Amino acid sequence: MIDFSIPQELTALGERVRQFVIDEIIPYERDPRLTQHGPNDELRQELVELARKQGLLTPQASPRFGGKGISHIEQSVIYEAAGWSTLGPVAMNCAAPDEGNMFLLDKLTTDEQAEVFLKPVLDGRFRSVFAMTEPGGAGSDPSQLLTEARRDGDSYVINGRKWLITGANGAGTWIIMANVVDDGNRSGPTLFLAKGDDPGIVIERVMNSMDRNYVEGHGVVVFDDLRVPAANVLGEVGEAMRYAQMRLAPARLTHAMRWLGAASRAQHIALEHAKTRTAFGSPIIDHQGVGFMLADNEIALTQCRLAIWYTAWVLDQGQKGRHESSISKAFVSEELFKVVDRCIQVMGGIGVTDETPIEMIFRDIRGFRLYDGPTEVHKYAIIRRMNHVGSTAARVPGSDTV
Ligand SMILES: Cc1cc2nc3c(=O)[nH]c(=O)nc-3n(C[C@H](O)[C@H](O)[C@H](O)COP(=O)(O)OP(=O)(O)OC[C@H]3O[C@@H](n4cnc5c(N)ncnc54)[C@H](O)[C@@H]3O)c2cc1C
């Protein structure tokens, strides 16, 4: 049974979130603490307090930590509403990378680990990072991992260099992917937990990037004889790739949800502009060239929402949804980028200025085609699967046979 009805309470919550973002968060989009390296931590904390006051902080917290444990479908509605401003998810503590990290930590931490590394992130005190990508090493292909962890008594000693690590500067909780190389039968890519103030974590610099809505930007980091107790292994030694996939399927979908909100706002602004701006004797919306761009946007936004909701439904059925989330991520990231690009075109010259938030959304959304799997890598995975099990196009929906 396919059912697209959204319960009234969920719609009401989505509307409350959207109004909160409009009334309380959008004014901060011109705050000087929103720097070239993203919102700084002082701004983040101020926003977090606003969400806390409204009872909207960390809506995804699981019952294990006193939350409601919202479903993926519920997330779709709430995160889209939060994404109306790129700062909305920051305020509500459901932005990347923390949201995906909290999901993974919730699944894998022991109670002792959760106390130190997860609880402060859930309540908005700490930020967290996921450190995988390396210059010359792990990237699209994580098996190229270079960072190493060597066993020394009751500890592991980690050495390596990472880049593009979102939020590295000042983060309290670290999830580090490193290759265990010399621990008998226990070896291979492993996730480790570490505290941000450990002197073995050296922030080399924060990179200058075209986006500016990830808190504290993206860092280049060196692990210089970083010593972590063996008790800080997250899950099992050698299982990092499996855990990363566990994190990624939902995490890439929540990116899609938030960016859908941002792209929808761009469309809203472009539509209002097209109704009032005139050229050659009529509002520009009446020129088919402009009207068609806005119509193409409406089609794309609707199709993206359906792709997200379908994948959310698959995840809510308890399935891994790896293939579906790959398809949705590749589709949504490419389509939303085109939507925002067309919005700039509709706006004319002011579209490339900061007179409206569209240019900021455009710069910020570009990275989405790269992180959590670049489009080409998702297509590579999709074609490999099709080569193995055939195309879903050749199946009766619901059947497992080609
Ligand atoms: C804004 C942003 C935030 C990020 N935050 C984090 C973070 O917090 N933590 C972290 O660990 N990483 C982070 N990353 C890094 C991100 O995960 C990587 O950029 C991504 O995995 C791609 O790796 P790469 O940059 O090394 O590109 P490469 O792997 O070098 O890829 C380069 C190009 O080759 C293409 N390519 C690769 N393989 C194939 C293939 N099989 N077929 C066709 N084309 C292929 C890719 O699609 C891409 O176009 C972030 C990146 C960005 C842009």
UniProtKB/TrEMBL annotation:
Record flagged with keyword Flavoprotein: yes
Gene Ontology BP terms: fatty acid beta-oxidation using acyl-CoA dehydrogenase
Cofactor names: FAD
Domain Acyl-CoA oxidase/dehydrogenase middle residue range list: 130-224
UniProt-listed CDD domains: ACAD
Record domain Acyl-CoA dehydrogenase/oxidase C-terminal: where: 241-386
GO CC field: cytoplasm
SUPFAM superfamilies assigned: Acyl-CoA dehydrogenase C-terminal domain-like (SSF47203), Acyl-CoA dehydrogenase NM domain-like (SSF56645)
Top-level taxon in the UniProt lineage: Bacteria
GO molecular function list: acyl-CoA dehydrogenase activity; flavin adenine dinucleotide binding
Keyword annotations from UniProtKB, A to Z: FAD, Flavoprotein, Oxidoreductase
Matches recorded under Pfam families: Acyl-CoA_dh_1, Acyl-CoA_dh_M, Acyl-CoA_dh_N
Residue span(s) of domain Acyl-CoA dehydrogenase/oxidase N-terminal: 8-124
InterPro entries: Acyl-CoA_dehydrogenase (IPR050741), Acyl-CoA_Oxase/DH_mid-dom (IPR006091), Acyl-CoA_Oxase/DH_mid-dom_sf (IPR046373), AcylCo_DH-like_C (IPR036250), AcylCo_DH/oxidase_C (IPR009075), AcylCoA_DH/ox_N (IPR013786), AcylCoA_DH/ox_N_sf (IPR037069), AcylCoA_DH/oxidase_NM_dom_sf (IPR009100)
PANTHER family: ACYL-COA DEHYDROGENASE FAMILY MEMBER 11 (PTHR48083:SF13), MEDIUM-CHAIN SPECIFIC ACYL-COA DEHYDROGENASE, MITOCHONDRIAL-RELATED (PTHR48083)
Recorded family membership: Belongs to the acyl-CoA dehydrogenase family.
Assembly and oligomerization: Homodimer.
Protein name: Acyl-CoA dehydrogenase
The organism of origin for this protein: Mycobacterium intermedium
